[in-house]
Amino acid sequence: MEFIDLKRQYREYQSEIDARMRQTLAAGQFIMGPEIAELEVLLAGYVGAKHCITVASGTDSLEIILRALGIGPGDEVITVPFTWISTAEVVALVGAKPVFVDIAAADFNIDAARIEAAITPRTKAILPVSLFGQMPDYDRINAIAARHGIPVIEDGAQSFGAARNGRRSCGVTLVASTSFFPAKPLGCYGDGGAIFTSDDALAEKMRAIRTHGGHRHHHPLLGMNGRFDTLQAAVLLAKWPHFDWEVKQRGTIGARYTELLRGTVGVPEVMPGNTHVYAQYTIRVRDRDRLGAQLKSAGIPTAVYYPKCLHEQPVFASLGYRPGDFPVAEQAAREVISLPMHPFLSEAEQDAVVAAVKTATA
Known about the structure:
The protein is built from 12 helices and 11 strands. α2 packs across α8 (230-239) and α9 (243-261) packs parallel to α12 (347-361). The chain is an alpha/beta fold and 362 residues long. The chain folds into 2 domains: 6-102 and 109-240, Type I PLP-dependent aspartate aminotransferase-like (Major domain) (Aspartate Aminotransferase, domain 2); 243-361, Aspartate Aminotransferase, domain 1 (Alpha-Beta Complex), CATH 3.90.1150. The relative contact order is 0.17.
């Protein structure tokens, strides 16, 4: 059994993917070829943003956003301690300070009720993460940010395709980021990411930063080489016609897991108004290591996202946080374990996973 079955996905779409890649190879425009603009138009329309700017990785997308907003030394950015390190890493890379706010137990996302207390005169952005495949309460978060005159950046690396109150992830804040890492809901065959905004001036600045801070031989900004690869765009364009079906499958499979496992382990809750794309199907159990070992012996792969909070990482020791500062996140880090999840997971495979979980936790 595969944890995320990318090989099966390729077999299903092989003729379309191969044809798109051959087309790109024949054209020979490997950097910023026409597939880039084609993909950006499709994705912007999908999320309801005016601009999509594809980039080399989800991490690069966040760094480009921060640089375009002028965030740097002496500034603070509010985010969460329970996420992949890139969310806070980019804040430190531009010279700013990550300020952590605890998560809510129900959905693993930022606890909006705790944000305002963390805002200081140095706060220059709020950077929530739409973790595991669903969005936090952006209506409330945007309202808090508006009162203080600071932007909201959605880290939608795991939630592309999800919606809240009918509005899609990456289309509900001033600016948003996603990732096309192969395991993501919309994944390419390497690194990749995208930025979304409806702010024309911000979009222009981010496009410039993506390509060394300018265009051709004029460089008004300090930029980077953050371009998305044309071959990877071709892969996404081939996958795109199937994406809505995959999103629906993810929702169906995730809901079925929850129905079958509720009462046995802690299951992920879908918050009111939300859809969930289950980038990971993540449960909670007290003896996670024992469960993982027993599932492995039954031939069922698992993964842990994330076994250590960011304030517990050595690289962020200088921030001065201590164990117990973020109890909800810390408890989640000790209890979470993710089960096999992808659009091609059969009911028979799912039943085998559920049976093994129930046996292991009996």
